[in-house]
Amino acid sequence: MTIYQPQSSAEATPKLAELPEDPAEHFAGYAVLGLPFTSGHYLAFRDFPVSSVGPGYRSVWHRTPAGEWTIYANAAPEFSCARYFGAAVHHTVETDVDIQWSGPFTALITVPGVVDWRLQLGTSAATSMLTAMAVRMPERLWRNELVLRAMGAFAGPLLNAGRMKVSGVVPNGQTFQAQPRQLWLVMDSQATVLGEDAGQPGPLELQDHLADFWLPQRGLFGARVGVRFPSTARPGVEPVGVRRGKKQAA
């Protein structure tokens, strides 16, 4: 049986030339798909060093208890998550985003002066089973909408993560197909946001979503993650409160 570790799997990102050749926009890397806190804070993380639309980037998503979203990214909005989710967030900030691994299952994610976020990852029978299935699934099935819909409907209850979808429409109008090939659970986490303790990990009272992208109700980490956007961007969509130009902390 193959033993996967988050750190080594995260470092095994394919090169751009290894991604499928088609007109879609592609990204590849690894991610904290999402982590809710019982306080109402929510955090997510993306490290996509491979991008077909510009430089690779890292980003942290933060939701306040009042439901206000900010995306912090180390690339301009047109090259990062705001390209697809900007219409649903209140602020985007171009700033440094960093991740440091202190062991194969332990990481620290930082946005200087804003977010300090420690993660302890682990496995479960469900994540091991889904990983075993995903790494063997042929590429053509990752583009089959019927398969992707079934996968999301199956994975959410199995992971006790609420509703999940791995395909659909994002807030800026593009269609997406997510391809998480390896999964782990967030077993423990501590985070501060703007000096405030985010509290204990735990599901939100009401699961949140950004268009068809549902935020999991428990902490999930994915490696060998591919994201494909088959459609083009809807023109004229700009996130509220976007900050461009020199990288800066909020």
How many beta-strand runs?
Answer: 15
Largest sheet: 13 strands, mixed
Spatial separation of the terminal alpha carbons: 45 Å
Identify low-pLDDT runs. Answer: 235-242, 244-250
Radius of gyration: 17 Å
Oligomer: single chain
Estimate the global geometry from the Cα principal axes.
globular
Class from helix and strand fractions: mainly beta
| Rounded mean pLDDT score | 90
Figure out the total of helices.
4
Strand content: 35-45%
**What is the succession of H and E elements?**
HEEEEHEEEEHHEEEEEEE
Structure notes:
The chain is mainly β and 250 residues long. 14% of the residues lie in helices and 39% in strands. It contains 4 helices and 15 strands. It has helices spanning 6-11, 82-85, 125-134, 145-158; strands spanning 25-36, 42-51, 57-63, 69-73, 91-94, 98-103, 106-111, 115-122, 167-169, 175-193, 196-197, 209-210, 213-214, 220-229, 242-243. Strands 1, 2, 3, 4, 5, 6, 7, 8, 9, 10, 11, 14 and 15 form a 13-stranded mixed beta sheet that branches. It has a two-stranded antiparallel sheet with strand order 12-13. A hairpin with a 2-residue loop joins strand 12 and strand 13. The model is unreliable at 235-242 and 244-250 (pLDDT under 50).
Structure at a glance:
This protein is mainly beta and about 250 residues long. Helix content is about 15%, strand content about 40%.
